[in-house]
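Lab meeting, action items carried over

1. Structure of the four-component assembly. Owner: GW. Status: complete.
Input record:
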Amino acid sequence: MSKTQVAMIGLGMMGAGMAGRLIDAGFDVAVYNRSPGAADALVARGARRAASPADAVTPGGIAVTMLANDAAVEQITCGEHGVLDTLGEGGVHVSMSTISPALAAALAERHAAAGSTYLGAPVFGRPEAAASGKLWIALAGAAEAKARVQPVLACLSQGVFDLGEAPPLANVAKISGNFLIAAAIEGMAEAFSLVAKNGGDPQAFYALISQTLFACPIYQNYGRQVLARAFSPPGFKLELGAKDIGLVLANGRETHTPLPFASLLNDRYQAGLAKGRADLDWMAIALDVAADAGLPQPA
Amino acid sequence: MSKTQVAMIGLGMMGAGMAGRLIDAGFDVAVYNRSPGAADALVARGARRAASPADAVTPGGIAVTMLANDAAVEQITCGEHGVLDTLGEGGVHVSMSTISPALAAALAERHAAAGSTYLGAPVFGRPEAAASGKLWIALAGAAEAKARVQPVLACLSQGVFDLGEAPPLANVAKISGNFLIAAAIEGMAEAFSLVAKNGGDPQAFYALISQTLFACPIYQNYGRQVLARAFSPPGFKLELGAKDIGLVLANGRETHTPLPFASLLNDRYQAGLAKGRADLDWMAIALDVAADAGLPQPA
Amino acid sequence: MSKTQVAMIGLGMMGAGMAGRLIDAGFDVAVYNRSPGAADALVARGARRAASPADAVTPGGIAVTMLANDAAVEQITCGEHGVLDTLGEGGVHVSMSTISPALAAALAERHAAAGSTYLGAPVFGRPEAAASGKLWIALAGAAEAKARVQPVLACLSQGVFDLGEAPPLANVAKISGNFLIAAAIEGMAEAFSLVAKNGGDPQAFYALISQTLFACPIYQNYGRQVLARAFSPPGFKLELGAKDIGLVLANGRETHTPLPFASLLNDRYQAGLAKGRADLDWMAIALDVAADAGLPQPA
Amino acid sequence: MSKTQVAMIGLGMMGAGMAGRLIDAGFDVAVYNRSPGAADALVARGARRAASPADAVTPGGIAVTMLANDAAVEQITCGEHGVLDTLGEGGVHVSMSTISPALAAALAERHAAAGSTYLGAPVFGRPEAAASGKLWIALAGAAEAKARVQPVLACLSQGVFDLGEAPPLANVAKISGNFLIAAAIEGMAEAFSLVAKNGGDPQAFYALISQTLFACPIYQNYGRQVLARAFSPPGFKLELGAKDIGLVLANGRETHTPLPFASLLNDRYQAGLAKGRADLDWMAIALDVAADAGLPQPA
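Predicted assembly:
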């Protein structure tokens, strides 16, 4: 039986690890990246180098994209020599980037018109998780296509969560998840400030919450880094956090959903950008929480 | 070797379970409650019935209080026939109620003047946890006293966290922890609304977050109940949640700590009280999150 | 000396009154509206009926537009048979609609490329003010063009305020002004609720503030209508208020300006839309201020 | 006909001017201040120097108090040699300080028990207005007493507004008025920041709003000073603004009134205190609005 072909488009820190994982698992992988050097190591491991997104894709096959933002996904999909040029009848586009629900809806329509199927499949997890198959995937789209790509997603993740039939629902889940993370950062930062202003040790408070009520990755990992003020190098840039909270509020306006915590976070992130912190980690909103309380800032 | 004597004052849903636990563990327990009937079952199990707080306390012994609010703790401690009347030199008052840091500071001074020691020791956990020794305890106060009461706290809890030497720090940790819980409720309620307004299933989003990033008791238990709109009977009343957020903001004003998330929660809780929801669970602030988004309300 | 020619494009409640005012003042007015009936009365008063925006405009002349939103202004200006088709070298486009600063910047570039000049000139005032020459105008753009259109603006307004050389600055001023109005509505609504919840008479409080510290049109007129709950028919629709606050926040994101009051107002307006109040007056956000305080709602 | 006797208690910047005004108008004035030097100039102008509040007051007469805060008013009224010692049957206490509605209610009860009448009569206006009879007075209490003190209030003010029969209603009006002023400061500061971040001139925007929609003292005077960053010496200290917003929120909690704008202002004022700005003018919250937007701070 021949191997399943997969086009992997977008070979950044996330995509490169995912491509390597697929190669190791025995998929027949074609790779494409806008800046070509990123493909070299993967070609050395057995991937086919594609000259364009269209060239990476097999008609009726599976295309996986992992790109930076709405503009990149739209260009790779609908632009010249894009995914839509080749994928055609029966093909499935597994779109794993964090993009707006609105773009997901538009791309799903474009695919439907071309006879192919668009799946929303954004992920939670850092590059290490991508390279080791430990991502969490939010999945939405047509049932048949979801079943077909199951082996690919199983190779990349430790869990797939089905959000429904409409592809944008996966993106709503992804940006809502990022909103909850940002809210946890702000909440912890406020609590740490309050403890500090009372003369207490925020580290002791962190130990309490992170081992009991909030014994879960976000509070444990983010709480530790907020306390250490470990904001550079960034795990996830503040400007990307600002973008994602912007997507949440944009979706809130489209659906008429008031989101007071998200609104407050948007102001925090705009302040961070205004103060030149775009390239710090998105946890760096904690700097302003502390500064507003008159607490000393890191050098 | 004689058994350690412990006075257990306050036999509500929390205190009664704690007293029973101490009796079963072999402590020599004296019990007192303002409404006397609450002591009957415990006396049947071997406790000594005390006529007043002062009567429950052994000079130089250990007094544990678990009461409803600042006023009750102040009255039981400093009022006529209060704890301070008897405890005296070498005694330790383990104060486990959720009270203001300001009152904790005042009581610590009163004890110091009387030669006794005040420990802040508020707890996280529901009545079931109190009865089964599964509380989490935030502890602060003098090291020697903390060491002495260790066997008592070990009997009542699955973990003790040391917040420092100043007793109010334990109370700051307790109210800050409740603030983080309320913030998690609001955050989840906003995210659930956003998913619902997009036509998605909040239950599927809950499955995603509660099994991955936020796989911890607060998100799992509170998230499930927010989705089920299980707000009555209450596990913890909305009016008590409103009180605790009020304590957070009061402490913020005393220490000049801006707390925007807590401020927003205060407005949510005041709206809940204004709408007659004092006796619902404190998760019921989610009702207004949904109502503001135009989502249908429970019958 | 021949009369100055003016093209008046957009004959809604605002534009029709402005066109009539220009006719009465002796300008040579050509009128255009997408739905043609709106021009009849003005043609009867002496205006020339134009078949398109391009037909209304005289090469090198003055074009005034007063339209509903960004899309309409862009279409009338850049679309087929648009203003840009005819205006050409030396012409001036006086753009009086409330649009985004971003579109104003884009249109200014398009005009510059065509040799014509774009002026941002949005207005404050209701239809009665438009018909009686009592508007207030926020003006921005090249000095020479501003001088040339001065007689036209003088005819339409009781005051022109110069915001600078860059056309979008007039739009920034307009949306910032609307933001301040919305903030005054929210502030008064909160204060009225507080007075009412204390058992007082908000009308007496309104008398105090509107005759002393806040003796100005916004507090006097809006305060009176908020108290009377006179939200229908609308003077300015809630959906338009929501749009303008959206423009403020969008500009805040583009310029990295945190705007906490505007963020809170955005949530109020989204709640209003979610509750089906798009066609009420934009003061109707006061309904939720009162409802959150448990105050009775109008029938 | 003999002159009306008035006891004027509290001779700070406000009270001294008021006493002088009453002397000039021909009232028979007794003066008292805790630090005695403040009375000298007034005694030179004909006032009687009193040794205590009780000594200043004539039985059955009129006592006016103008003091710094709740504690001072309570002490002067109920303390040893206080107003209540002498005032007695038929006397009227005109309480003009900015205090909490809760204290006003308590003092009204104390007076009723003593046969005297308490009137809430807080004022709007700076020391210059106090000295020239140009205050605005918010008045609440029993009708007969209000009628009796009318000549005194007329001498001190350019307008008296009747808020009702319950004395605390005047205090609710006063703190709600201060809340509206603080909200106007924040609103203007946000709008000025937005204009500046767009490259515009906030002064031009100020000219527009302060001459049109918001042509009233607060926007004109405060707007000018915010732009000039004229925060020292203070006209009204930031710590007093923080106190008043605290009174607003405390009243909101007592009456279950959500007040999101006031909550946000409370955080602004706490940040101001945390940053050591207690002695700047209360407009100095604008510093953080600008700083959050990355705008340069004054030297």
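2. GW to write a short summary for the group page. Key points so far: The two ends of chain A are 61 Å apart (CA to CA). The mean pLDDT of chain A is 97.
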